[in-house]
Write a structure and sequence with these properties.
About 50% of the residues lie in helices and about 0% in strands. The radius of gyration is 12 Å and the shape is globular. The protein contains three helices and no strands.
Length: about 80
């Protein structure tokens, strides 16, 4: 069952907000920006997963991030979980 667009928008906004909290430059948060360019590492992604679990009840499997290179990739993985 798909979740409401409003909920997806809230999750997408929370992802961006969390990355800024972790130290990413808000002006650099573009879908094609690499996580390396944003200085986002695996620990940050783990923490992001914890934030989404706490706030939205989304369980993230860290293995799903193995092939993630860009912010857009990460958002697609996370929003796919929200849509389950």
């Amino acid at each position: 069952m798909a979740i409401a667009q409003e909920t997806q928008d809230k999750i997408a906004t929370r992802i961006t907000d969390a990355l800024v909290e972790f130290g990413a430059d808000p002006d650099a948060l573009q879908p094609d920006a690499t996580l390396e360019e944003l200085e986002i590492d695996s620990l940050d992604l783990f923490e992001l997963g914890q934030v989404l679990k706490k706030e939205f009840g989304i369980e993230i499997d860290p293995d799903d991030f193995e092939d993630v290179v860009t912010l857009g990739d990460a958002q697609r993985v996370l929003l796919a979980y929200a849509d389950k």
